[in-house]
Amino acid sequence: MHRVLLACLTLLCLPLMAQAQDETPPSAPAPLQAILQDHQALVAKPSRRTIGAVLEALVASGLPEVPGFLNRYAEKEVWQREADGLFFYAEERGDAYALTDIDSGEVVAEVPSEGLSNIKPNGGVRREIGAALVQFQLSDPDITRRRDALDAISRNPDPSQLEALTASIEGEADATLRTRKERLANYLTARFGETSEARISAIRAMSDDLSVEGRAVLNQILATRFTAAETLPEDANIARVMTSGAGIDRDVAYAALVEADLAPPLVEAAEVRAALEGNIIGGRVGGIPLGQLGTSEARARAYAALAAAGTVPQLVTDADIDAALAANVFFDTYEEADPAITEAAAETLASVQTRVGVGQTIDLTMDAVSLASIYFLAAIGLAITFGVMGVINMAHGEFIMMGAYTGYVVQLFVPDYTLSLIVALPLAFAVTFAAGVAMERLVIRWLYHRPLETLLATFGISIALQQLAKNIFGTQARPLTSPGWLDGAWVINDVIQIAYIRIAIFVLALLFLGLLLFILKKTRLGLEVRAVTQNPRMASSMGINPDRINMLTFGLGSGIAGIAGVAIGLYAKVTSEMGADYIVQSFMTVVVGGVGNVWGTLAGATLIGFLQKGIEFFNPSNTLAAQTYMILFIILFIQFRPKGIVALKGRAAGD
Hints:
It contains 26 helices and 13 strands. The chain is an alpha+beta fold.
């Protein structure tokens, strides 16, 4: 009975429940979906002009889902369901699409493609989306995205980025990125600050910034526009006033007058011809028969007649041009209207350019010293052998190559680059010392005082050694890797920097300079070498064996070349022909500095290093021209000082 009564009551209540359900309002859309629905038409059919309103609303919402949505929106992964206008992420699954809610990220349905439309923003819209994403990426946990955001700001600075960039500085954990954010915020303030005081303060703060980016900001503030007018405007921020022929070309000045409607345009010869052809009436033009128009004077009269009648524009004569130029003024106006800002920018830029010039001079000097140290290492062995023995060793470059390959082989067996370098230096000396002694014993000793035969013989040995290296190592360049502590560069500022490997080569050159001076000045071998160098006959009469000294000296010079090869191979390519890149410079260094003298070699290397870098600075795009100018200079130098900068004394007595 009770069950029957309960069933009856239930049946009676069903209509009421259905009515209540019908009257329940639909649930409100999630926050991100709600914003998109408010701008539904703009989201569905975006353009570069209209997308701004959508992006402003999304950014202002502060929703954590916004960055992900913007990324997928730009990647054309957003779809709209036509039935209700809602937006989803869609993924193709067979014949259907899985729809993902843009707020929750959950798959809510699988539907056929009918009734779905893919939103495809064009390139302009995607750029606007990328600019909006920058504000989120500035505080992204991924350092790569933060770095990309700063790159995007650098490429396209905008006043709207300043607030977000400034807000992200406090929470930046990476010191390098924090410094860059502070610098970019200062750049944006300098260009787009709300007050003149803020902008001027930011501009003054850039006086220590020598970067190209900083100078670009100052130049943008100082951007000018060339203008012609009847008088100088009182409200313009004028950069400079020019006159025709002094600061501005005459034709350019008149073209500016024409553009400003202050003078009639010039009539070109082709226009004159077309005007005459278009105004032939009854066999005449301007009252002149066609048969008389064979000269330029007649054509000018005909055109003048047409111009007097108002048919064609008047010709502009040189006198008209001069009068127009004299009656008007020409000037550059700053695009920035505030004179205080442009004055601060000009003063700051002048200070920065002065410091950049000093920095470039220092940087060029450091590069020249580094190059001189390389040439010194490459040439010192040749200077010793050439000076003591008078042997023109064309295979000296191949001893440099042998040293570099020795370092490469050592690294094959010793993977620790620091340890391999420690092993390679003495081993390269030993290998090339032995090769030099063998060459002197087998070939050179039979050719003393026969320079032409010596040159040909050593040139043949050079070719043979190159071919041997190709047979063993192949023609491909081999790596000689420097230790990790030699990677990178010593950066003093944005202008002055030098690679650590070049510093190491410079230190190595100093060590060898000291070592050679010690050997030549403080050891018996050095005493005997100096004696043979100055007077071999007298040295022989004093019990010194010139033959033995020649052998050891040649071996020593070859060994030093091997060490130079290891040093050079750390930053240059290691190939069978690498010695040819340094043999010419080595001979020039020896000849210019003074044959057989350590100090002369140092002086010659310094002169050639500075000369080459100086020529490259003035002609950076043509290295061949730099080499040519350098050789011409050295030829002239030898004409005035044939024995070099530091000439030996007493050698002629033994010849």
